Structures are given as structure tokens and as C-alpha cells.
Amino acid sequence: MSIQKFANQFVCDLVAYEPGKPIEETARELGLEPDSIVKLASNENSLGPAPSAIAAMEKEASGVHIYPDGGGYKLRTALAEKYDLGLENVVLGNGSNEIIELLCHCFLNPNAELIAAEHAFVVYKLMATLFGAKYVEVTDPDFIHDVDGMADAITENTRLVFIANPNNPTGTLVGQEALDRFMDRLPDHVVAVFDEAYFEFLEDAPDTLKYVREGKNVCVLRTFSKAYGLAGLRIGYGLAAPQVASILQKARQPFNANSMAQVAALAAMADEEHVKNTLDMNNAGLRFYEQAFSERGLEYVPSVANFILVKVGDGDALFQNMLKKGVIVRAMSGYKLPEWVRISVGTEAENQRCIEVLDEVLPAIASV
Ligand SMILES: *Cc1c(COP(=O)(O)O)cnc(C)c1O
């Protein structure tokens, strides 16, 4: 008899997350030099890590035979100070993805429901499936989360509502008023999760930390993977009221945030110049893509994050054809958006190369 029969069925049923295509893999398959490949597929920071973060890691390297501080004292203290919260509000994760998993670990079971938007970040659905919970999808007209509709969808079995703000892959934001309205309707048996992976890119960010300070059942997710350029280290965090944070702390591995990640994050946080350079690059890049798409008559979703969703016809074909020319974008068929691709904003040179290659391959796509 197959061992599959004895494995956890929820795990066996899972369709694995498909990440952006790695540069090394692409180089191997196409016989290209890794340096010649432009990857705009995973919303990474093309400027790299902050120089101060690299220096902190170099200093830390000789000490990695020692286990990390499992309590993450220095980094959690710095985060608490930055946001005017207490140490008890901060939970570190192996990327904010781990906090998503911890939330599901702590609050889901086969009788529970998780609510998210139709075009939400796909990890929520994977995690709901992993824990056998019911995944409830609420339509998002014009690609904007309908948080009133999400509040309407809450039942006695709902345990988690995920609001990605801004959302990936749509790049759209829900404003303060709508969030306040949603929070006014949040019943005691539900945790609201605000996934703010792109928070640093926002000019006019809604305040969700006030809900944490008010002691509401919320968890705000942030990460060092995007604006801070530390995606490879896997370091993110949740900011939550003590009654939520203390449950998450119990579920995590003792050393889930590694020592290199902790020192690099601490250094990156203090490097305001690197963040400013990143935002300047991103704003210029977003304007560049908007103009390029408009000139070509391509529909796009105006974005406040570091990526942009554009309608190209056959997204998979465009992805494959651009890949052959060494530019990696992200096809969106996994998000039920087969006509769209998502392009991360890179450096000026990367963005220009991307549009050049797009121009080379678009006619072929349009004619099939
Ligand atoms: C990138 C991303 C994350 C998390 O990334 P980590 O690298 O695990 O911190 C979380 N949520 C959304 C919506 C994202 O796009």
C-alpha cells in the first residue's frame, strides 16, 4: 500500500507554491551568464541590501557556531521602539511568511474558516488548505479588497481574515476609513491580519498599529524582504496585541530567526538613506512603467507597491518568451489572471531592458 495513504491528506492535496524563476536556474537552462539576466519576478530590491547590513553580517559571520538569541531581544526591542509598542507585541519570523503559517497553526482547524480577497496573495490559500480549513474568497471589484464584503462573510467559524495592504499581485491599497469600518465589525472570535509587506513604499499609509495598541485581535505583518532588500535572509515580523502575540510565540521554532538575519535587519532598520534611495528608484520606475504601458495601449493596475500588474494577452506565453531573452517576469495564471503578468520595479537600466524585450516579444504573443 502506498505511504501516501498514511500521510496527512491536507498536505498531499497541497499544490506547492511556485516562486519567481531563480536567476541561476534560468542561466543553467538557457546557457546564459547569470549576470546577464534581469529578474523582475519576486519584488526584490534591485539596489541590494543596505551596505550597513552587509557590514553587520560580515562581522557576525565568525560567530555563527553559536545559536542565535532565540528571544530576538535586540531586534524586537528596536522594532518595539520604532513603532511605540512593547516587546510583548513583537514576534519575529523566518520571513513574514512564517508568521502567516504560525497564525494558521494557532487558529485554524478543519472546522475553521479563513477569509481573503479573490486576488489576494496566494500563500493564504495554501496555508488554509494545509490546515484543512475552509478558504472563503470575497470578490474584489477593480482589484481592490472589498473589506465590507469581507466583514459580511464572517461566520461563527471564521478565525482569520487576511487583508494584504497593499495587496500582491494587484498593488492596490485599502484606505483608513474602510479599515476602521471593518475593525468596528470584527467579532471577538476572529483575528484580523494586515499583511503590510510593502508598507515602507507607502506615502500615505493607513495606521493599523493603533488597533494593536488598542488591544484588538489583530496582527500586522511586515518584512525585511522587500524595501530593505534582505529577502534571502528570511526575516519578517508580526506586531500584535499580547493575547495574540503570546500564542504565536508558543508555536514558533526556538531559533526561527537566524543570527545573520537579526544583525542585518537591525542595521538595515537604521539605514534611512538606503530606504530613501530605494523609494526614489521605485517611484521613478513606477512612473516609467505607467508611461510605457500607456504608450503601448496596455491596461495596467495603478500600484503603490514595488511591482505592477499589466494585461498582455497570454501571460504564460509572454513570460516564456521574455525568459528566453533573459528577462524574468511573473506569469499570473496561478492567480486566475492568465492574461496578466506582474513586473517588479528594478533599476532604471533593468526597467528599460524589460520594456525593450517586451516590445520584441509582444507582437508574437498578440498574434497567437
Ligand atoms: C513578499 C510578501 C510577503 C512575505 O515575504 P517574506 O519574505 O516571507 O517576509 C508577505 N506578504 C506579501 C503580500 C508579500 O508580497
Automatic annotation (TrEMBL):
Keywords: Amino-acid biosynthesis, Aminotransferase, Histidine biosynthesis, Pyridoxal phosphate, Transferase. Residues 37-358 form the Aminotransferase class I/classII large domain. GO terms for molecular function: histidinol-phosphate transaminase activity; pyridoxal phosphate binding. SUPFAM superfamilies: PLP-dependent transferases. Its EC number is 2.6.1.9. The modification N6-(pyridoxal phosphate)lysine is found at residue 226. It holds the Pfam family Aminotran_1_2. It is an enzyme of class 2 (transferase). Pathway: Amino-acid biosynthesis; L-histidine biosynthesis; L-histidine from 5-phospho-alpha-D-ribose 1-diphosphate: step 7/9. It catalyses: L-histidinol phosphate + 2-oxoglutarate = 3-(imidazol-4-yl)-2-oxopropyl phosphate + L-glutamate. Its cofactor is pyridoxal 5'-phosphate. Coiled coil: none annotated. PANTHER family: HISTIDINOL-PHOSPHATE AMINOTRANSFERASE, HISTIDINOL-PHOSPHATE AMINOTRANSFERASE 2. Belongs to the class-II pyridoxal-phosphate-dependent aminotransferase family. Histidinol-phosphate aminotransferase subfamily. Homodimer. This is Histidinol-phosphate aminotransferase. It comes from Oceaniferula flava. The gene is hisC.
